[in-house]
Every structure is written in C-alpha cells, then in structure tokens.
Amino acid sequence: MRLAPEKATLVHDDGREEIIEASILRPGHIVLIRPGDRIPGDGEVVDGESDVDRASITGEPLPVSRGTGDGVFAGSINGAGALRVEITRPASESVIARVAQLVEEATASKAKTQLFIESIEQRYPVGVVMFTIAFLAIPPALLGWSFQETLLRAMTFMIVSPCAVVLSTMPPLLSAIAASTRRGVLIKGGVAMEQLASLDAVAFDKNGHVNAWHAGREQGSTHRRDD
C-alpha cells in the first residue's frame, strides 16, 4: 500500500533545495510540493495555495482548496499550485501509515471459520490416511475386491486433499480484504469480513447517506435513509 512518494524536496533555511528520502522527514522540516506531486508527509501549508486531491485518503471525489494554515495528508496529490508544507508528523505516524497498519492488522486477524480449520488441520490428514489404510484392508476381505480395484478407489478418496480444506478460508478472506482496500473500503480483519454475510442492515454516521458520484462521471446516485 505505497501511496506516499519515496522522495521529497526539502527546503533548507537558506532556501536551498535538496532531494531526500521521504521516510527521514521529521516535524519542522519544510518541503516543496510542485504541481502534480504527491505530498510526502502529513503537515501544514506555510506558503502557497492549491487544490489537493485527497480521494485516496478520505474518499472525497473532488479536490479541496488548501492554503496557508491548512493541513494536508501524505499521499494526497497536489493540483496546479506550488505549496510549501511544514511536516507535523514523522512518516511512521502519518494518516496513510496508520491506514496501512490497519490493513496489516486486518490481514492478520482470524475469523471463526479459520480458527476451526486450524483446530482440525493436524488431525484431518491423519484421519484421511488411517481411513485410506482401512479402505485398502477391509473391502478385499469382506467384499472380495481385487487389490488393484481397491487401490484405485482408495487413491480416489485420497484426492480429497487436506490442503484444500486448510486453504479454504484464509486465501479467500485475504483476497476479499485486499480487493476492498483497493476500492477504498477498509475492512478491519477476517472476523469483520465473515460477519458481513450475516448483516441485515447497515447504519451510516455523519449525514446518513452514501454518495456514489465521482468527479468526471455524468451519472451518480445518492442513497439516503432519513429515519
């Protein structure tokens, strides 16, 4: 989840500009944000005025005007004007860094289904092997099957691989969480993802509506519940 740039233009007290790693920016550093640049760190505008696209951070479809005294987020895209921004947080504490941390925590959390699979994943292969051995021994003795016929049927049973059972939960959950994140929806863990299947209603805060309109699109829709 790399939204912030790797490099930043540091402005020294004497006006000299220097390209440095964005990861070493510290509070108090002044950086120059040229038109079209991604902002390298959370900070406050100290000079200049421009429209800033914060869609990747806040989901706002339209750029917002930022001027002296206004805050900006790392990963936002600067518009047509140049800005000088004073960094207020180290890179590790920026909004985008916290979002990335939430995504990592989400992928590490385990749903009930996964915990159940993990509780049986050691015993399930042993059970499959023992059942296969019994399948090889009992039918020939009781049903008169040939060894070749019995072996063929036993191997067919062995195709029911323990790996398929073990991999039936986490990869789909991780894929769903990653796909949601790419679309701007942050789901806090496999537990929350699993619980979505049982939802009957969703409540939204703030002004109570979900706006599906985006800049540059001719069509949009707003879904609102007034009660």
What does this protein look like?
- This protein has helices at residues 55-58, 95-108, 112-120, 123-143, 147-158, 162-166, 170-182, 190-195; strands spanning 7-11, 17-21, 30-33, 43-48, 50-53, 64-66, 71-72, 77-78, 83-87, 209-211, 222-224.
- The protein has three domains: 7-90, Distorted Sandwich (Calcium-transporting ATPase, cytoplasmic transduction domain A); 112-166; 169-224, no CATH class.
- The protein has eight helices and eleven strands.
- Helices cover 37% and strands 19% of the residues.
Tags for this model:
alpha+beta, 3 domains, 11 strands, 37% helix, 19% strand
Biggest beta sheet attributes: 6 strands, antiparallel
Provide the CATH architecture of the largest domain. Answer: Distorted Sandwich
Alpha-carbon distance between the termini?
Answer: 37 Å
How many H/I helices?
8
Low-confidence stretches: 211-227
- Level-1 CATH class name of the largest domain: Mainly Beta
Order of helix and strand elements from N to C terminus: EEEEEHEEEEHHHHHHHEE
Q: In total, how many beta strands?
A: 11
What structural class do you assign from the helix and strand content? alpha+beta
Q: Strand order of the main beta sheet, please?
A: 2-1-3-9-4-7
CATH topology of the largest domain: Calcium-transporting ATPase, cytoplasmic transduction domain A
How many structural units, i.e. domains? 3
Oligomeric state as shown = single chain
Spatial extent as radius of gyration:
28 Å
Roughly how much helix do the residues carry, as a percent range? 25-40%
Mean pLDDT: 78
Shape: elongated
Beta percentage is 15-25%
For CATH, the homologous superfamily of the largest domain is named as Calcium-transporting ATPase, cytoplasmic transduction domain A
